[in-house]
Amino acid sequence: MAATTVYKEPAPRVDAENPLESMMSRFNVATEILGLDEETYDVLKAPDKQVIVHIPVTMDNGKVRVFEGYRVVHNTILGPSKGGIRYDKNVHLDEVKALAAWMTWKCAVVDIPYGGAKGGIICEPTKMSAGEIERLTRGYTLAMKDVFGPDRDIPAPDMGTGPREMAWLMDEFSKTVGATSPAVVTGKPLVMGGSLGRTEATGRGVMVSALAAMKKLGMDPTQTSAAVQGFGNVGSWAAKLLSEQGVKIKCVSDVSGAYWNENGINIDEAVAYKNVHSGRLDGFTGATLMDNADDLLTADVDLLVPAAVEDVITEHNAHDIKAKLIVEGANGPTSASADPIINEKGIMVVPDILANSGGVTVSYFEWVQNRQGFKWSEEMVTERADRIMTDAFEKVYATSQKYNIPMRIAAYVVAIDKVAQTYKFRGGF
């Protein structure tokens, strides 16, 4: 008799800390500070919905391959859920659950009317043709047609996806409802209803957060040095905008390694170089390739911007960090085990759910414009986004001072308090 196949959840990498556990450890500390009642705690700790789908895709060689995809809706008490879709071989359900929860807190921190969600497909997009990725995206959209919707759940780009995939998603969803539905997704191409200012929005939010933190710490941007880990969309824009404020960017990194220039890297040259070299800094001559890319995290700089992936700052390297200020461009770049070490060292951290929320803020603006049928100017988008980011920083900073707690926990306190109060007013359970 044939053995029964048992479904096993794909496990996280063995050398990585569980991002869901990291998120929950911070969540637990914040709820204790708030004195959250048991009923509300139980509602907020678990996602509302977890959807697992299997998507058959005809590959270019004519064979059918089945891909596993996820969509986790964490919470919708503040409004429709919002969150990106990532295409990556290491996607797993716990990661998606953590990222969905982070989106709930992120939207609440910046006070926009969204809940949190996240999606992902286990695949290697760099090894797939454009046609294969399109068929995968359309198949995923059809599988999620009862989840997605302008008033239900609104996807966006994330790791491995971009405007191209969002255009396919919008088109496929529009077919299912029999009408053009631009508000079902954000991060679209401009010609399809995308927002001006969206491309640089997350990096710009990092810059605004960094400047606000520097002001609190008495740091002069023109006398500040920085290292930026990750030179994709977020990292490159953060580096560019920080350098325009006078910050000396001594080190940047991407998958090809970390690059150091004691006198400061010309970020415009680095961006121009990567744009004509398949998005990579391989061979860039404006800086010296470091022997170990991880040394960027412990480099002798004032400001550290981790803008790559989760769990790069851990208990193993936190003791060696020399920066006075960490502004998180990536989602979950600091593991929970590193928090006590960083706090003991007196390093201010502007956490991910605050620092990188510029992206979801301008995504919200895109959705509003789609619903209005009216396009805003780039100046309007930038001015409103900067104001929201600055106001959110000030609120989190004031909370950290009130309770004498780190900025990370203060951000969770602000977010959880907003969501919990909304449940009380709505009488949701």
Mean pLDDT: 91
- Percent of residues in helices comes to 40-55%
Portion in beta strands: 15-25%
Instruction: Characterize the largest beta sheet: strand count, sense, and whether it forms a barrel.
Output: 7 strands, mixed
Structural category is: alpha/beta
How would you describe this protein?
By secondary structure, the protein is an alpha/beta fold. Helices cover 42% and strands 17% of the residues. The strands form two sheets. The chain has a seven-stranded mixed sheet with strand order 9-8-7-6-10-11-12. Helix 4 crosses helix 5. The longest helix is centred in the C-terminal third of the chain and has 26 residues. It is globular and about 55 Å long. The N terminus is likely disordered.
Question: What's the short version?
Answer:
The chain is α/β, with parallel strands linked by helices. It has helices at 19-34, 38-45, 93-109, 130-143, 163-177, 201-217, 233-244, 267-275, 339-344, 352-355, 358-372, 378-403, 407-426; strands at 49-58, 64-75, 81-88, 115-122, 153-157, 225-229, 248-254, 257-260, 288-289, 303-306, 325-327, 348-350.
Q: What is the fold's blueprint, element by element?
A:
Layout (H helix, E strand, L loop, with lengths): L18 H16 L3 H8 L3 E10 L5 E12 L5 E8 L4 H17 L5 E8 L7 H14 L9 E5 L5 H15 L23 H17 L7 E5 L3 H12 L3 E7 L2 E4 L6 H9 L12 E2 L13 E4 L18 E3 L11 H6 L3 E3 L1 H4 L2 H15 L5 H26 L3 H20 L3
Parallel strand pairs: 3-4, 3-5, 6-7, 6-10, 10-11, 11-12
Antiparallel strand pairs: 1-2, 2-4, 7-8, 8-9
